[in-house]
Amino acid sequence: MGLFDLFRKRSEPQVVEPQISDLLLTALLNNETITREKAMQIPAVCGDVDFISNMIASMPIKLYRNKDDKVERINGDVRETFLNGDTADKLDAFQTKKAMVEDYLMGKGGYCYISKSRNDVTGLHYVEERHIEVWKSDDPIYKYYKLLVMGKEYRDFDFIKLLRNTKDGASGEGLTAQISKMLETAYQTMLYQLGMVKKGGNKRGFLKSTHTLDEGAIAKLKQAWAQMYSNESDKIVILNNGLEFQEASDTVTDMQLNESKITLQKEIHNLFHISDSFEDTFKFAIYPIVKAFETALNRDLLLEKEKGKKFFEFDTKEVVRANLKERYEAYKLAKDTGFLTLNEIRREENLNWIEGLDVVNVGLGAVLYDTIKHVYYTPNTDTIGNVGDADEETQELIKTDEGGSEWKSPSEPTA
Q: Phi/psi at 129 (nearest 5 deg)?
């Protein structure tokens, strides 16, 4: 009976499972959570963050004032220099804006310290959000907080604060925290693909033996199999008589890997509001951050006496500057409709003013109005006249072009 049992034991197939580590399963079992550093290793996340931050950092910021119901540009303000050129810090203006937008998207907010000499700004110093700690009161109505950097206290108006989804005005919520599970899934999928590459993309399976293998044979077989699944070998395993390799069926993860990868990329792009249409991308992904940045600058970088009179604004025209054809078509439309003069168009392109190009087409097929000399020219009749000499239709068009203000002939007495 014992001899029969021994014979039956030898004839039963023995199964040896190759020791292939599954990085995805290991990570999930360890309950790993996504961090900002891991999230930025995901190509779709890194690409979207880099695109949005570069676009916003490339836009110049200009300072304007409201004066007599008109908006005029303020030139020579040192704050504008800090925002567009030298910040008096190790990071220049482009790098500072880019870093703040990255912290806005992926961290608790973008922070920039405002160094001052009394009321004069002397520099802008970007501070990584990981160095910022917030101490705040418990009052939900009259909110109060202080910012701590390396243990040193600062007041809230000492910093420009670019915050996403904030509830207290001190810190925001980055995408890493808001949708951590989705980003974690994308990250683990990337690790799974990396594991497949490391093992050469070979299929998983089982080795079946018709006879019993001793411990030494099993150890050698495991070693040979591990070498096969590494990228440093010829990927050849010689099976002795009685050994057979049976390929394992594809797992759900294997079968849906490519499909899930595409789906995750689309979800990440949707999360950042990146679409195939640049107009929609600018409208939903870039413009809201631009307005948040402008609001932060107007609150923290303007003096109390300047608020309501002056304001900072991004020059979004820089975004379309790269597309020459679209830019020139927009200029042509603005010129044909009388919205811009040729000199105003030249100014947008940083070109010199040319005398005689401050004219707009006011309609009627061929009536030009000189916005500086306040005379109109009719090419059809080759006549030049003062505004008061124009017919009522032309006067109405000129009046509309000048902003709709009440028009008076030079001959009419002023009140």
A: -65, -20
Using H for helix, E for strand and C for coil, what is the string for 368-404? EEECCCCEEEECCCCEEEEHHHCCHHHHHHHHHHCCC
Q: Look up tokens 């940045």; give the residue.
A: 293
Between the alpha carbon of residue 336 and those of residues 330, 331, 339, 341, 362, the distances in Å are 10, 9, 8, 9, 9
> What single-letter amino acid sits at 135?
W
User: How far apart (Å, rounded) are the C-alpha atoms in residues 128 and 99?
Assistant: 8
Can you tell me whether residue 68 is helix, strand or coil? Answer: coil
Residue where the block lists tokens 């003069």: 341
Burial class of residue 70 (count of CB atoms within 10 Å of its CB; 0-12, 13-18, 19+): exposed
Q: Which DSSP state fits 241?
A: T
316 and 62 Cβ atoms separated by less than 8 Å: no
Per-residue pLDDT tens over the stretch 198-228: 555 555 666 666 666 667 777 776 776 666 6
SS3 labels along 281-325: HHHHHHHHHHHHHHHHHHHHCCCCCCECCEEEEECCHHHHCCCHH
Contact 39, 225 (CB under 8 A): no
pTM: 0.65
- Radius of gyration of the chain measured on its C-alpha atoms: 34
Q: Is 330 left (phi over 0), alpha (psi -120 to 50) or beta?
A: alpha
How far apart are the C-alpha atoms of 310 and 293, rounded to whole Å? 15
Residue with tokens 């925002």: 83
In 76-119, where do the E strands start and end? 110-117
